[in-house]
Amino acid sequence: MGYIKDSSFYKDAIHELNYPCGNFYLFDSFVVGEINEGIIYSWDDHAKPIVEEIAHLYDHNSKDIMYISNRVNSYSVKPLDWIKFFKNNYKLKGHTIVSYTSQGMLNCLIEKLFTHDNFQTFDNLEDAIAWAKWSAKKIKIEEEEFESI
Which residues contact 26 (CB under 8 A, 6 or more apart)? Predict the structure, then answer.
């Protein structure tokens, strides 16, 4: 299990947001979220104000961001609340979940049913961050090629 603060990646964070429900670490092209133990994470109670602040800090509706959910603690997510995320015109370039347990990986499969973006699961933070960086770079190149047509 790896908290972002205990990793070599922490020094590259450009901003850190601390909420009662968890901590969020902002990087150039991705965000790592670590929700606190025992939280029942919902759109109205938690995600909406966090997403609004992150969108403001990145100066857009988060459409260019990769999100990494680093599940170092045990908590619940209301998967249907992803619908509220999309209804509010928020988008992600990609979403990945880092889960350290087999039960957590099973929960990821259920959550994947409710997301409409590039979705991956990993069992370690290092691979998730490598994927986020690679995906962001690949998507940027594809967009530049499309714009030149």
Answer: 13, 14, 15, 16, 17, 54, 57, 58
At 121-144, the pLDDT tens digits run 999 999 999 999 888 777 666 666
Q: Assess contact for 120 and 17: CB atoms under 8 A.
A: no
Cα(72)–Cα(101) distance, integer angstroms: 10
> 95-113 pLDDT, tens per residue?
889 999 877 777 777 777 7
Q: Using CA atoms, how far apart are residues 52 and 102, in angstroms rounded to an integer?
A: 32
Contact 29, 60 (CB under 8 A): no
Quickly count helices (H) and strands (E) in the chain.
Answer: 4, 8
C-alpha–C-alpha distance, residues 73 and 92, integer Å:
23
Count how many residues are written for the chain: 149
Q: Where are the alpha helices (DSSP H) in 7-121?
A: 48-58, 81-87, 102-112
- Helix, strand, or coil here: 78? coil
**How far apart are alpha carbons 84 and 75 in whole angstroms?**
20
Give the pTM. 0.85
